[in-house]
Amino acid sequence: MGEAIVVIQPEDSEAGALDEAASVFVGLRPRLFGIAYRVLGSSAEAEDVVQDTWVRWQATDHTAVIDPEAFLATITTRLAINVGQSARKRRETYVGPWLPEPVDTSADPQVGAERGEALELAVLFLLERLSPTERAAYVLRESFDYPYGEIARILQLSEANTRQLVSRARKRLAADRRTPVSSAEHRCLLEAFLAASQTGDLTTLEELFAADVVSYSDGGGARGAARKPVVGRARVAKFIGALASRFWPGTTIAWVEANGRPGVLISRGETLVALLTVSASAQGIDQIMWVMNPDKVSGISHARPEPPGVGPGPERD
Question: What are the C-alpha distances in Å from 40 to residues 29, 45, 93, 235, 303?
């Protein structure tokens, strides 16, 4: 008997090509999300960018794409830059301080799978000072180790200009950022801060703080968050101490890994109140970040509050 010949109908071939294209996209999605999130500082905006990239990928002639990863990274980066430009204008009218949208990196492989550079909330906050194009160049180089030539092609710039963008971004971040403590030290400082803030211990609070510590409360107008940053060791200690009797009673906490660093979800009953985290160096805690905007903390609200008496929070009835 002769060999059987399988005739593939055109529609079957087309379906197979689409399945293969979808498989390629799914495999690259963590990286695409990671790029968009770091450029934008918002997981919601990053998800929108990745979705738009998928729509464009579906409409692409895949047989003409030699390197799908380079093609998709290019689309994602350029879309993220466009969104970042409009986001900067929106944030000018944001009520109170704007902080990046946190993600639980212990549960979200889309972010945690990549290098940690340009992922911490404090770093994302500093990146807001860069233009979207500068930010994209820095992210592609420092977080994803793209060659300068590839970054230049993605950004449609010369390689020399791309190197200048990355160098300028590095210098600006280095000037504004101290060497952070380890994750273990970070957690110890956050535990000590929680204990002192819950009891209103001003002396201990001041001992924990760097001289130029800043407390940022991001409520977006939706909560009773401070509308302006509080600056300086004594002022921040008094501000935190004043919260002891009216903020902490009746709350429970859940420890999470927020952007690669220990953080605490604070709940009152079934209502999530805030994500609290800090940045710290050898000089002490230099930034306290209260993310209180419900839209921003909803992405990590699946973490369950620890029962009373567990963790550094005081025992509750």
Answer: 16, 7, 17, 31, 24
Q: To the nearest 10°, report the CA torsion of 162, 165, 168, 170.
A: -80
Highest mean pLDDT, choosing among 95-104, 111-120, 230-239, 257-266: 230-239
Q: Where are the alpha helices (DSSP H) in the chain?
A: 10-40, 43-58, 68-91, 109-112, 121-127, 132-142, 148-155, 159-176, 183-199, 202-208, 233-247, 294-297
Q: Is the dihedral of CA 25, 26, 28, 33 positive or negative?
A: positive
Number of Cβ within 10 Å of residue 277's Cβ equals 25
* Cα three-residue angle 98-102-107, rounded to 5 degrees: 175
Q: Count CB atoms within 10 A of the CB of residue 247.
A: 18
Q: Can you give the pLDDT at residue 252? A: 95
Phi-psi region of 230 (alpha: psi -120 to 50; beta: other; left: phi over 0): beta
Closest CA to 136 of 187, 81, 69, 174: 81
Highest mean pLDDT among 106-120, 254-268, 301-315: 254-268
* Interstrand relation of 284-291 and 251-258 (parallel, antiparallel or unpaired): unpaired
Strand ordering across the sheet containing 251-258? 230-231, 209-218, 284-291, 271-281, 261-268, 251-258
CA angle, corner 75, sides to 69 and 81, nearest 5?
A: 130
Q: Assign residue 284 a region (left: φ > 0; alpha: ψ between -120 and 50; beta: otherwise).
A: left
Q: What is the DSSP letter of 18?
A: H
The least confident of 110-124, 161-175, 235-249 is 110-124
Mean pLDDT of 130-141: 96
Contacts for 2 with CB less than 8 Å, ≥ 6 apart: none
Looking at residue 16, its pLDDT comes to 65
Q: What is the structure's pLDDT at 88?
A: 86
What does pTM read for this prediction?
A: 0.86
